[in-house]
Specification:
single chain; 428 residues; alpha+beta; Methane Monooxygenase Hydroxylase, Chain G, domain 1; Beta-lactamase; 2 domains; five-stranded antiparallel sheet; four-stranded antiparallel sheet; 12 helices; 17 strands; 26% helix
Length: 428
């Protein structure tokens, strides 16, 4: 474990490699209610002040602290590579790379027809630089759950979470399903902005017992499955779910069941406190190549080097939208009906942030992982194409266009005589 690092936007004991769960360390307050220890509340308030009080930090005013290592492979082998300009015209890749490079990118990668044909790192970044994944952590949770289903620890996406989070038996959360934490239909209060110390949005994010607060206090605004509402609290439920289902710490599960089988490098992830619970909904830091491999695992429908890592049909399930949101599946986004700007929130409300889509995507089977500050992995099965851009938020005078990279590169694909272009996203 290490201490340091970054923050973005918004009691377990390890014994002999297994996770033993102790009761939440509550004490009796003056009014007779139960509360967290004073030192935990003091740490929470100091984090809140750092986030909103204007102190310096790598992201916002607060730094991820503490961190836990997530081990990767011991025998890293680069992805197969080939020359660019053969299957995709070099000028198109150069144009896309320049677009990324002018927008505070750390890395840009293009994989086509089985080969990595462009891998670029900007400024002082290298292949070993840990990228703050922000919401690229959410597709990691989807893969982590898929591995738990494949290994028999979770029965299916439609198993009630209360089978593992037993505190929810007999409550309004009893019928919440595993899939609901992946497709954002838990019914939890949606993500929002608040500065008050008493806000559940802040306590469920910054408190050193954030997972216990989500389990015991986070409000439902709708019945599970009834409403799409984007929230970090929803994805942060994956860590305690995995740990209770498997008996393994979330960081160890991701290491042994996700990264190492992909031959991927490891990194770090934010904990709520030393020895505590991982923030699974954000705050994982991995090299760009590791995020690329997550996209490739999805492209290969859950197979890697001939071994099935995800249940058959699981990737198809992850790309299937719900009646509540035509733009999202499980941890990913699909084209859906074309609109010029859209955000991560429910499309029937005004999103706090929205991203430009200057034209329809040129392939309607495209889907993408998309995190804050435009951390994107585009996957286009019909074109045998995966594109990655990771980095920091673009400067204000160079806004991000979410279709520019894939459309520019698809326009540069060298097609055989008679080969047709893909079916584009409908314009309306």
């Amino acid at each position: 474990m290490r201490v340091s690092v970054y923050l973005n936007g918004l009691w377990l004991v390890v014994c002999l490699g297994l996770v033993a769960f102790e009761p939440v360390p509550l004490y009796a307050a003056d009014d007779g209610s139960k509360a967290y220890p004073p030192e935990a509340e003091a740490l929470y308030l100091s984090r809140l002040e750092a986030l909103f009080g204007g102190r310096s930090g790598n992201i916002g005013g607060y730094s991820y602290d503490p961190l836990e290592d997530i081990a990767g492979t011991d025998s890293f082998q680069p992805l197969d590579s080939g020359p660019d300009g053969i299957t995709i015209r070099k000028a198109a890749i150069d144009t896309a790379e320049s677009f990324a490079g002018e927008r505070n990118s750390q890395a840009f990668m293009v994989w086509h027809k089985g080969k990595l044909i462009r891998e670029t790192y900007f400024e002082d970044n290298t292949a070993d630089t840990l990228v703050v994944g922000r919401s690229l952590a959410k597709p990691v949770t989807v893969i982590a759950i898929g591995r738990a289903i494949a290994e028999g620890y979770i029965g299916s996406l439609d198993q009630p979470i209360s089978d593992f989070i037993t505190e929810w038996k007999g409550t309004d959360r009893e019928n919440m399903l595993v899939r609901h934490v992946l497709d954002m239909r838990t019914g939890f209060l949606r993500q929002g902005m608040a500065r008050e110390a008493e806000s559940i949005l802040n306590r469920s994010y910054l408190h050193p017992h954030h997972a216990d607060i989500i389990i015991n206090e986070y409000p439902l605004t709708h019945k599970p499955g009834e409403r799409y509402a984007y929230s970090n609290a929803t994805s942060d439920m994956v860590a305690p779910l995995i740990e209770r289902a498997t008996g393994v710490r979330y960081s160890e599960w991701v290491s042994e069941q996700v990264l190492k089988p992909l031959g991927a490098k490891g990194g770090e992830v934010w904990l709520n406190r030393p020895g505590g619970t991982v923030h699974s909904g954000c705050c994982i830091m991995l090299p760009a190549d590791s995020f690329m491999r997550l996209g490739l695992l999805s492209y290969f429908e859950g197979l890697w080097d001939g071994k099935r890592l995800l249940p058959e049909g699981y990737v198809t399930e992850s790309k299937t939208v719900t009646p509540q949101n035509p733009y999202t599946g499980m941890g990913l986004y699909v084209p859906g009906p074309y609109v010029e700007r859209r955000g991560a929130g429910n499309p029937d409300i005004a999103n706090l942030q929205s991203t430009l889509h200057s034209e329809p995507y040129l392939a309607n089977d495209l889907y993408l992982y998309d995190g804050n500050s435009n951390q994107v992995v585009y996957i286009v099965p019909s074109q045998e194409l995966v594109i990655l851009r990771v980095g920091n938020a673009p400067p204000r005078d160079k806004p991000w266009d979410n279709v520019f990279l894939p459309n520019t590169i698809m326009r540069g694909i060298v097609r055989a005589p008679g080969e047709t272009a893909p079916t584009p996203q409908p314009a309306s």
